[in-house]
Amino acid sequence: MSTDTLAIIDLGTNTFHLLIVEIDDRDDYRITDKHKEPVKLGEGGITAGKIGEKAFSRGIKALKKFRKLIDSHHAGEVKAFATSAIRGASNGQAFLKAARKEAGIDIKIINGNEEASLIFEGVRNGVQLPVDENALIMDIGGGSVEFIVSRDGQAQLLRSLNLGAARLLEMANPSEPITPSEIKHVERVIFEQAGGLLDELKEFNLKYIVGSSGTFETVGAIVAHKNNDHLSSENLNSYRFSAKEFL
Q1: Which SS3 state, helix, strand or coil, does residue 110 take?
Q2: Between 53-72 and 92-103, two packed helices, what is the crossing angle to 10 degrees?
Q3: Nearest by Cα to 58 from 98, 112, 6
Q4: How far apart are CA 147 and CA 120, in angstroms?
Q5: Which residues pair with 18 in a beta bridge?
Q6: Does domain 3-109 match CATH 3.40.309.10?
Q7: What is the model's pTM?
Q8: Homologous superfamily of the 112-212 domain (CATH)
Q9: Which regions of the chain carry the CATH code 3.30.420.40?
Q10: Which of 50, 53, 59, 78 is nearest to 15 (CA)?
Q11: Sign of dihedral through CA atoms 147, 232, 16, 165?
C-alpha cells in the first residue's frame, strides 16, 4: 500500500502549529510528527492592524524551523493556512512574501467563516458530538473566536468575531492583577461585538458547549483536578463536565 506524506501548518495569532501525516490510498492517515512555536504574532500590533517588527521576525524564524522538519520527513505537499492576525494585518501580504522567499512555504489566508468551517470539521472528526441536540462549538484563539452551532453532524451556523485573547489583552492593557473597572471595559467590548450573535444563539436552545482550543483544555484540566479525575491528554480531549462543575 502506497503512502503520501503531507505537512499542514496552522498560523495562529499566538502559536504556529505543524502537523506531519502519512496518508494511504484509502485516505486513512497516521500522524508521524507535530510541533508548535509560540510566536505571539499579534503582540505589539494586532489592535493597530499590523504585524509588529519583532513578531514578524519570530514568525519567519518559526517557519524556517518548520521547513527543516518538513524536509526531514520528505513531505511531498505543504498546506499552510493563515488566520486572524495575518488576514487583518496591513503587512500581511509582506509576511506571505517573506515566508515564500525565506522558508519556501506558500500560505493561504482564510476568512473567518472558512476558519470556523475547518474547526467544525476537526471537531466532528475528533470527538463525538451530541445527537438530536444542538451544540455550540467554540474556539478561542488569539485574534478571533469562532462559533459553530452543530446538529446531527451538520453546521447550522458559522461565525467568527475579532474577540481573541491576544486582541483583547492588547486592547485593554490591564493592570496586574486586572481591576474590576478593566473587567467591565472588556465585557462591554465583548457584548458590543457579540450582542447580535447572542440573540441568534438563543433561538437554538443550546444545551452543550464543545470547546476547541488550549483555553478549554486548561478549563477541563482545572475541573478534572477539582473532581480528582486523573486524565491523560487523550482523555482530556473528550472530558465532559457540567456548567455547575465549571462555575
Answers
A1: coil
A2: 40
A3: 98
A4: 9
A5: 9, 35
A6: no
A7: 0.91
A8: Exopolyphosphatase. Domain 2 (3.30.420.150)
A9: 3-109
A10: 59
A11: positive
Beta strand ranges found along 106-247 (DSSP E): 107-109, 135-140, 145-151, 154-161, 208-211
Nine cell digits for residue 238:
473528550
Per-residue pLDDT of the chain (247 residues; tens, 9 = 90+): 678 999 999 999 999 999 999 999 888 899 999 999 999 999 989 989 999 999 999 999 999 999 999 999 999 999 999 999 999 999 999 999 999 999 999 999 999 999 999 999 999 988 889 888 999 999 999 999 999 999 988 999 999 999 999 999 998 889 999 999 999 999 999 999 998 999 999 999 999 999 998 889 889 999 998 999 888 777 788 889 998 898 8
CB proximity list for 129: less than 8 A, separation 6 or greater: 123, 135, 150, 153, 210
Residue type for 21, please?
V
Cα separation, 131 vs 140, in Å, equals 24
Query: What's 38's DSSP letter?
Result: -
Burial class (CB in 10 A: 0-12, 13-18, 19+), 195: exposed
Give the torsion sign (CA, 107, 108, 113, 114). negative
